[in-house]
Every structure is written in structure tokens, then in C-alpha cells.
Amino acid sequence: MFDSIDDWLIIAVVAGILFYGSSKIPQLAHSLGRSVGEFKRGRLEVDRELKAEQAAASAPATVPAGGRSP
Fold first, then answer.
1. What whole-number distance in Å separates Cα of residue 28 and Cα of residue 20?
2. 6-57 pLDDT, tens per residue?
């Protein structure tokens, strides 16, 4: 009877409308969208930090012009 995700999605939307009322649905959708955006921004920030750390760790050590290290 409920073989696909579409069936469950329709049931969830109808249940949400019945439970919260039609006036609260836009507010809930807005809050959910903002939360997803914050999560994505946080994930991108962590990815950038990891790449910067990996680049710093893989950078070759430099030797002074004299050819000897201290």
C-alpha cells in the first residue's frame, strides 16, 4: 500500500496540516529552511578548515639558503 516515499510524504504533509494547522506550516517550513542553510554553512566551514590543515601539513619544509638547518 505505501511502497514509495511519495506516499509517505503525502501522509506526512496531511498529518502536519491536521496537527499544526495551515497557518503554522509556512513558519515551520521557513525555520526548517534556515536550519538546513545553517547546517550547510557549518559543514562547508569545517571542510575549508580541514583542507587548510591538510595543505599546511603537506607543505614541504624549507631549508635556509646556506643549505644547513639550524
1. 9
2. 888 888 888 888 887 878 878 888 998 999 999 999 999 999 999 999 988 8
Can you spell out the DSSP letters for 16-46?
HHHHH-TTTHHHHHHHHHHHHHHHHHHHHHH
DSSP 4: S
Total-model pTM: 0.52
58/39 Cα distance (integer angstroms): 29
The domains of the chain are located at 22-55
Torsion of CA 19, 24, 27, 32, to 10 degrees: 0
Q: Which cell numbers in the block locate residue 39?
A: 547546517
